[in-house]
Amino acid sequence: MDASDEHRSFLHDICLNMINELQERQAQLMEVYKNNPTFPFDFYNLSLRETDTRIQAIRELYKKNMDEDLS
Questions:
Q1: Secondary structure letter of residue 31 according to DSSP
Q2: Residue partners of 21: CB distance under 8 A and separation at least 6
């Protein structure tokens, strides 16, 4: 494995880990909202959108740097 492959593998793993962590937080937030009817909907909605935006940004960054989709 040359340096380019190592860099690609490292970036791929880091990006996937970041996305997985964001998705886990998103699932936790959904669970909190489901179990707590007094949880503010606006905060819930904005938090979900922010997480989706971050995930999309990570995917776009990877695609821009590696010329391939993150899978």
A1: H
A2: none
Check: CB of residue 69 under 8 Å from CB of residue 47: no
From the centroid of its chain, how far is CA 69?
A: 14
45-70 per-residue burial string, b: 16 or more CB within 10 A, e: under 16: eebeeebeeebeebeeebeeeeeeeb
How high does pLDDT run on average in the chain?
92
Model pLDDT, residue 7: 85
10, amino acid identity: F
Tokens of 13: 């793993």
Could you tell me the pTM of the whole model? 0.86
